[in-house]
Amino acid sequence: MIATVTLNPAIDKIIVVDEIKNFSNNKIKQIKLDIGGKGTHVSSVLSDLGLKNVATGILGGYTGSILESLLGKKNIQCQFIHPPNYETRTSYIIIEENKNNHFMLTERGNKVDEKSINELVEMIIKLSSSCEFMVFSGGVSPGFNIDIYKKLIELANKNGCKTFLDASGDYLLEGIKARPFMIKPNIDEICDIIGHRPENIKEIVFHAQKLIKSGIKVVAVTLGSDGSLIVSENEAFRIYPPKVKAINTVGCGDVFFGSSIFKLYHKSTLREAFKFATAVSASKAMKLMTSEFDINEALRLLDDVLIKDV
After folding, report:
1. Residue 60 and residue 68: Cα distance in Å, rounded?
2. Which segments constitute the Carbohydrate kinase PfkB domain (predicted)?
3. What is the CATH number of the domain that holds 179?
């Protein structure tokens, strides 16, 4: 079993317009609601690939009930903590069809009380004793300490659970101290780790190898439309994605993360796992919804994914 942990989930409200014109009444063509939050996106991916999983984290209020319903429709087992007077946030994705452009606006989220945080810690201890993989992904609601991911990963590691982390800023810097099995930083998050912008791929490999020596087993650096860089103790390679006509790239990183974890759970090699993840992520970019992808399209794209050793 796999568990995902989302400390600041959201409902994604996708708003489609022709284009945004300044100082004008912009007409909305379409509104869609979808699962939001990075960890819950991973749960959605795993479920769509046929793998049962449990989602935990912080959830509450009217929007929280909508999100829980959306997760339930995908047969995802929900074991969230529900703080009092807490309302799950909403993220807004604006799609400009005429410009083939999109952008995202996110709410910060409400503060979580100490009692609910303690309940979450107990939930992590419980789930990590029965799950083989635990995925920690996304931003953090106000109220949590900077070292929350570090603390939770240490608890899961202690129970023999293989841990995965996708975070940013200080939460990432603290989280990697717990030595998760795998981390998935993007290029900006690599900058957070090394303290400056790397000059080239070889410099990223150098710093990724330092992370490997510290105890992390896999560093998967996402590079946007340029693909990804995968580093482990024994190998380092680039993956180049197929060219597709993107509609909405929000959620592509989560689909990449989730589908790579799916393959690793089924004992695939790193190359097999991340090649598959790249194809699934590309198919997601072609979809309007943030958690949607087409597995048949992904399988067709698989032959167009290139891998080169670094």
Report:
1. 9
2. 11-283
3. 3.40.1190.20
